[in-house]
Fold this sequence. Notes:
Layout: E1 15-17, H1 19-32, E2 35-39, E3 50-53, E4 58-59, E5 63-69, E6 78-83, H2 84-90, E7 93-101, E8 115-123, H3 126-133, H4 137-140, E9 168-169
Parallel strand pairs: 1-7, 2-6
Antiparallel strand pairs: 2-3, 4-9, 5-6, 7-8
Amino acid sequence: MNPHLCQSDPGVSRIALTPLAAGLLRRLRDRHGPLMFHQSGGCCDGSSPMCYPRGEFRTGGSDVLLAELVVDGVPETVGFWMAAEQFERWRHTHLTVDVVPGRGSGFSLEAPEGVRFLIRSRLLTDAEARLLNGPTEADTRDTRQADGAGHVAASASDSACRRSGGPGRA
């Protein structure tokens, strides 16, 4: 199991692919080899998922691996990374990678195809959120010990995802 992977239950995921997105990933894989996604959360195209050849986008301590996506017809998984700051805002959502007409960023592999990847989102159900994010404050209120100032110590299981170990290639 990948220590950076943000998934605690094999039946629950943070990210899904539409059939159109899976088809495009198969075509891109045939042309470019193993793939990865990164979503920075920046403005403009930075808020769209960018597809790169695996290892061409450097991930670091400020990135989180949300999933290793399995795509039928692609021999390896496709890592989906997100800027940690963006993930903190989106940790309560399930993301679906879709494809729509139009040109996105020139840096993303699908740009010459006349389409772009797009994220569609929905709120996680309470059950999904507990499985992916761990217990809520209300769930753990009575089981944690507060110090004299009322601060509660966090445990290692409080983090839903692990960040990249530092500069490197995904």
